[in-house]
Amino acid sequence: MVCHYGTDLKEMVETVERYTHHGKVADYIPALSKANPTDVGIAIFDGHDTCFSEGQHRKLFTLQSISKILTLALALMDHGEEVVFSKVGMEPTGDPFNSIAKLESHIPSKPLNPMINAGALAVSSLIKGSSNEEKLDRLLQFVRELSGNQSITYNAEVAKSEFDTADLNRSLSYFMKQHGVINGDVDVLLDFYTKQCAIEVDCEDLAKIGFALAHHGEHPDKNYSIIPFEIARLVKTFMVTCGMYNASGEFAIRVGIPAKSGVSGGIVGAVPGGIGIGLYGPALDDKGNSIAGMKLLELLSAKYHLSIF
Ligand code: DON
User: Fold this and answer.
1) Is 65 labeled as catalytic in the residue annotation?
2) 174 & 119 share domain
3) 179 and 209 housed in the same domain
4) For residues 208 and 205, what is the distance between their CA atoms, to the nearest angstrom?
5) Is 263 a catalytic residue?
């Protein structure tokens, strides 16, 4: 099949490689600091058998915050909107992803949205299952179905590395427990959350997940629904308003593609009715987004008129 993206991808990846020198690999989760800062990879899935890809697209990396859109979808499928949005709001914060500030300044004291850490922790506490093992199994099955890759699992070393150092996320959780947003044992929640964040994918897996979201939650290869239409719409809306944290406004203007980033350097993009994009570039900007990944999305969006606005 002739690929109209393929010819440009190589050139675009080469163009953005130099931006990696202005970024920094995350090291507050010690295991993430092993990443190679100059790596850049991309895959595009257009619904056919072909994933157009370039650079380090087969390298595995952990989902980190990208997992937040998946747990949000699953929690909404488990409980519906009323329950989920009684625990978490729908507004962007303009604050860093791990900020505690607005938990105290907003009454009622629930996190402002499901993409910041506090909101994601509240959402993770809602995933159905009688044990963390069962919850994680359900989440993994969901990710495997969305990506069409049955071998996806989590990286135990990264999960442990985060669990051992996640004192800020513990603080957010204890604060929310005190205010009745979550209940139960905080370390049990942290155990699940850190494993969820450590689910490992490559760019092609991410591109397929993005494609499924872009197509109202349908299976990337088989045309049946995995995520209900309304939930896929809602998740994509959060990707636009909060997916790139306190860079979401500028990203909407410069790129205009629903997207979600993670501190491992991954970004998933979902062009509604169009392609799914998976990116990897572990050198991050000061807001925790892949510096090369954002630039690559900007180039792609401009070249192929992918902005939804
Ligand atoms: O909770 C954390 O801090 C990480 N597991 C995930 C944060 C993250 O990916 C923010 N993204 N840019």
Assistant:
1) yes
2) yes
3) no
4) 5
5) yes
Strands 200-201 and 61-62 come out as: antiparallel
Instruction: With cut-offs at 50, 70 and 90, classify the pLDDT of residue 1.
Output: very low
The ligand 1 site (C-beta within 6 Å) comprises: 64-65, 97-98, 117, 162, 169, 197, 261-263, 288-289
Active site annotation includes 245: yes
Using the mean position of ligand 1's atoms as its centre, give its distance from the Cα of residue 173 in Å: 15
Q: Is residue 309 part of a domain?
A: no
Q: Which two tokens stand for residue 305?
A: 């008129």
185 lies in a domain? Answer: yes
DSSP 210-228: HHHHHTTTB-TTT--BSS-
Give the CATH number, domain containing residue 287: 3.40.710.10
* Same domain for 43 and 140: no
- Please state the atom number of ligand 1 nearest to the C-alpha of residue 66: 9
pLDDT digits (tens, 9 = 90+) for 144-200: 999 999 999 999 999 999 999 999 999 999 999 999 999 999 999 999 999 999 999
Its domain, for residue 225, covers 6-64+201-304
Catalytic, out of 40, 53, 68, 135: 68
Please give the Cα distance from 12 to 70 (Å, whole number). Answer: 29
261 annotated ligand binder: no
Report the alpha-carbon distance of residue 171 to residue 300 in Å, rounded.
39
Verify whether residue 193 is a known catalytic residue. Answer: yes
Domain boundary among 197, 216, 236: 197
Q: What angle do CA 148, 26, 170 make, to 5 degrees?
A: 85
Instruction: Examine residue 96 and say whether the peptide bond preceding it is cis (omega within 30 degrees of 0).
Output: no
19 known ligand binder: no
> CA nearest 199: which of 71, 23, 16, 46?
71
Domain termination site, one of 169, 197, 225: 197
Q: Residue 171's domain is classified under what CATH number?
A: 1.10.1500.10
- The total number of residues shown for the chain amounts to 309
